[in-house]
Amino acid sequence: MRLLLHQSSLRSAIALLLLLGFALRGNAHSQQTPVNQGQTSEQQKPGDSRLQLEVTSGDITAVPNRPTFASTAEMMQPGVFEIEYGLEAADAHQNINGLLKWGAAKNLELWFLHNPIERDAGVAGLGDSGAGFKYKLFLQKNARPTLSFLYVATIPTARPQLGAGTMQHLAQLLIGKDFGKHHLDANEGVQFVGRQDGSGFDRHYFTALSYSHPLTGKWAYTAEVAGFSRANATNPATMTILIAPTYSPTSRLVFDGGAYFAAYGNLPRVTFFLGLTYSVADLYHRHRVSGTP
Asked: What 3 state SS string does the chain have?
């Protein structure tokens, strides 16, 4: 989901993203009925107990996977269509990355990932795409965390210099747990990477642990440690450390920005990012009642 962009184009894209964010913010205010201040005063990870509060018709709560590499185990409300878009900028590496999500049914999300622009070492173009689903196995209850399964297939739509060049398959277990206002997400999975000669797949393992906590008002922050094991001689192991604040002007819109740092591996030393998550609409147009997951 990481894309590249020319520096001058990056500045223009950032401006466009900010304009889009403010437009979406205004749209969210116009479409959303007033909610209890406790529901929107603190931006937390989607596993927060506020998702269990009683809401009225039209209320939607965003469930961001951004800005971390880890994906949350929590699910969107059924029928909700949600977008996530972000920009990245580092030395010789820039991108735009997007994720479209739809709550097709209770406990089931359908995903489409696309990298509309990618630039690396002076080469620019379309990035890879992907498709998959997330299914919730267990809901958080007492000491038991939320447990979900994620599958994503990478579609090599980019030229070889910019993308994987072959099909890839990622399968992960996602764990989420609330401890009061503290929220933890842990991911453990394996990715099968197709070999260029078509002789089969290499594999490497992904591990991530992210933490989030509200600050004041509508601000929160998140931190993460994540990495892939070595896949082959040309794909060494990597590890990143991420820090990011988030701002949620409404329950359905979340802005994020920050940086992640390469602890080791063939990655830029520091990568800066900016993005948003926005719940566009409930495509089922159903009345929401207390206990909606």
From this structure: CCCCCCHHHHHHHHHHHHHHHHHHHHHHHHHCCCCCHHHHCCCCCCCCHHHHCCCCCCCCCCCCCCCCCCCCCCCCCCCEEEEEEEEEEECCEEEEEEEEEEEEECCEEEEEEEEEEEEECCEEECCCEEEEEEEEEECCECCECEEEEEEEEEECCCCCCCCCCCCEEEEEEEEEEEECCEEEEEEEEEEEEECCCCCCEEEEEEEEEEEEEECCCCEEEEEEEEEECCCECCECCEEEEEEEEEEEEECCEEEEEEEEEEEECCCCCEEEEEEEEEEEEECCCCCCCCCCC
